[in-house]
């Protein structure tokens, strides 16, 4: 699948789920924002993935942050969407 098509799907899904995450339906729907890291043992060829401008707050982790992960050489930090399917699917069915 071409990267541009993947970007469109990602953005469409992310924007839709983000609206739910920021609504009063979020707890029942099981949709929430989730911040974290993606760490790598080796520095990836592409340090900035195609979706980096679509998630919230994407950045390369600092050397100081990487000290917490001595077996890893590179990391990315960002906020994305978490979807608990055991809640989300029943919520969708009720709509």
From TrEMBL:
Asked whether the keyword Glycosyltransferase is assigned, the reply is no
**What are the required cofactors?**
FAD
Q: Where in the cell is it found?
A: Peroxisome matrix
Gene Ontology molecular function terms on file: D-aspartate oxidase activity; FAD binding
Write down the Gene3D superfamilies for this protein, in alphabetical order: D-Amino Acid Oxidase, subunit A, domain 2
Supply the alphabetized keyword list: FAD, Flavoprotein, Oxidoreductase
InterPro entries named in the record: DAO
Q: Which gene encodes it?
A: LOC104956986
Q: What is this protein called?
A: D-aspartate oxidase-like
Give GO cellular component annotations, separated by semicolons. Answer: peroxisomal matrix
Keyword match DNA repair? no
Task: Assign the protein's first listed, main location to one coarse class.
Answer: other
